[in-house]
Amino acid sequence: MRKAAVRTKAVIYARVSSKEQEAEGFSVDAQVRLLREYSAENGLAVAREFTEAETAKQAGRTAFGAMLRFLEANPGHVVLVEKVDRLYRNFADYVKVDHIGVELHFVKDGMVIGESSKSQDKFMHGIRVLMAKNYVDNLSEEIRKGLDEKAAQGIYPTHAPLGYLNSLEPGTKRKVIVPDPARASLVRDLFLAYAGGGHSLSTLTKLARESGLTSKKGLPLNKSAVDQLLRHPAYCGVLRWNGKETIGVHEPLVSKEVWDEVQRVRDGRGPRKTGYGTMPFAYRGLVRCKCGKVMTGELKKGKYVYYHCTGERAALCGRPYVAEGKITDAFVELLKRLSVPPDMLPWIQDGLREADKDRRRQRESGEKTIRHELSKIKNRLERLYLDKVEGEVSESFYRETRTKWEARTTELQLQLASIDRAEPAAVDGAMRVLELASTAHLKFKEATSEQKRELLLCLLSNCTWEDGQLTVELHEFFDLMLGLAESVTKTDAGEQRIGASVAKKVDWWR
Fold first, then answer.
1. What does the pLDDT look like over 9-58, one tens digit per residue?
2. Are 11 and 50 in contact (CB under 8 A)?
3. DSSP, residue by residue, 172-238
4. Which of 226, 250, 245, 236 lies closest to 160, judged by CA?
5. Residue 422: closest CA among 249, 181, 197
6. What Rg value do the Cα atoms of the chain yield, rounded?
7. What pTM value is reported for the model?
8. Angle at which helices 427-443 and 345-389 cross, to 10°
9. How far is residue 154 from each of residues 161, 241, 403, 407, 411, measured CA to CA in Å?
10. What's the CA gap between 117 and 132, in Å, rounded?
11. Predicted confidence (pLDDT) at residue 421 exceeds the cutoff of 70
């Protein structure tokens, strides 16, 4: 009896990246079919098939590693693969395969590489390996070059930092960063708070969480994230890329002066270096000199607290010294003016609630309008594409019109995101603070330094000591209440006028 010929055993290896799967000519199934046909035509017996449909550079090539282990444990197999660049992505892969000494069949390349191969074939194989590696390197290099070019033009080249969004610039195809309507002001507030010198990184992180500032994934910020935020120069309009700095085309969230002050404080060269940031001074970081610099607290004779300007140019302001008691008296007078008669509080509360209802109605109406316009633009883009396919419009008109509508879509989506993320007005919280402020003047002097700070941080937007006088700017809500309280003391026109005044002035709350 004639013995059957022993067929050489083979393994099949097929791989694609995730993007290549869309094209049938590059799919795993197409490669496997080709290699099976090749094995049948050449009398090879397929023992195993190894396939993976993922980016080799990122995924670690699980199937590739399994194949190498199989070949080491089962000598004598040949490897069938479509092309050189399907098997290798770097020289490390080449060395691993070469170490095993297996015979390789590159079907589409028409090449078989083994111990008996001609030196010319081995040389060509080496060239193809170099080309496979060069593709990955070139791809990375082109990406880097593109990012470098964007940075050189002042365009932020990657994902927008917290407080910004990536957006298509209206009228162009440039992708730029724009302030995030929901987060930009919160990021700005962190810079201003830290520049004042009254916060450590821990207390600033706590402030960030209390303000509702989250990462783009909606998670609370940790100390590391806040520290990175404070160090990021993009917030003052500077683009730092590959060791070079350029002026960005994007809108800064803070001024260069604030940015520099934050860096000085963070490096221990600013107000916190003086020690007042760690001392229980009531007004640390709250009061500025007329020259713009923060006034720092200093203990004299172990019990007297004085504040003085931290600026280095005395000619601008004379670097005044002022006793803490004098500043306290000025704040007490302010709080007296903020005192609202108890019978007025219900009026104010009703006015705030009505304003909040109006705000909610405006929000719903605005959202409906934006969604309607987005739907119209979507329909227009679909019709525009059909017109282009049917030859109704030119290619240039199609591109120009599509770009315009896509830019408008981006603008509307930003507006919608702002609406969706907007927090409802904290009416009850505002009332509690207002009630506290109304009676605070009675016990402010006896309050602890921390209690004084907590109240003043709620009330004050800005505070300056100039020529022996304290000038304050209140947060808008309390500025409104101050004007309202003062108007009430000058009139006895009755409830009708008071109610109308409340309803009119709380419009900002929306």
1. 999 999 886 544 444 445 788 899 999 999 999 999 999 999 987 644 45
2. yes
3. SS-EEEEE-TTTHHHHHHHHHHHHTT---HHHHHHHHHHHT-B-TTSPBP-HHHHHHHHH-GGGGTE
4. 250
5. 181
6. 35
7. 0.37
8. 140
9. 15, 10, 22, 20, 21
10. 21
11. no
Distance, CA of 143 to CA of 57 (rounded, Å): 16
The predicted structure's pLDDT at residue 60? 57
The single residue listed with the structure tokens 């995730």 is 18
Q: Is the dihedral of CA 282, 284, 286, 289 positive or negative?
A: positive
| Number of residues assigned to the chain | 510
Helix (H) or strand (E) holding 298: strand 295-300
pLDDT of residue 131: 57
253: its two tokens: 């969230």
Q: How many CB atoms lie within 10 A of CB 219?
A: 9
- Tens of pLDDT along 403-418? 888 878 877 776 666 5
d(CA 96, CA 70): 13
Residue 70: other Cβ atoms inside 10 A: 14
What is the DSSP code string of 490-510? T----HHHHHHHHHHHGGGG-
Least confident interval from 100-114, 290-304, 485-499? 485-499
> From the CB of residue 420, how many other CB atoms can be counted at a distance below 10 Å?
10
- How far is the C-alpha of 215 from the C-alpha of 212, rounded, in Å? 10
- HEC string for 330-356: HHHHHHHHHCCCHHHHHHHHHHHHHHH
Distance of CA 200 to the CA centre of its chain: 22
Strands (E), 98-189: 103-106, 111-113, 164-168, 175-179
Structure tokens at 81: 């693969």
> What tokens appear for 350 in the block?
């009703």
Q: CA-CA distance, 436 to 198, in Å (whole number)?
A: 23
For residue 188, which of 153, 223, 142, 234 has the smallest C-alpha distance?
A: 234
Beta bridge pairs of residue 362: none
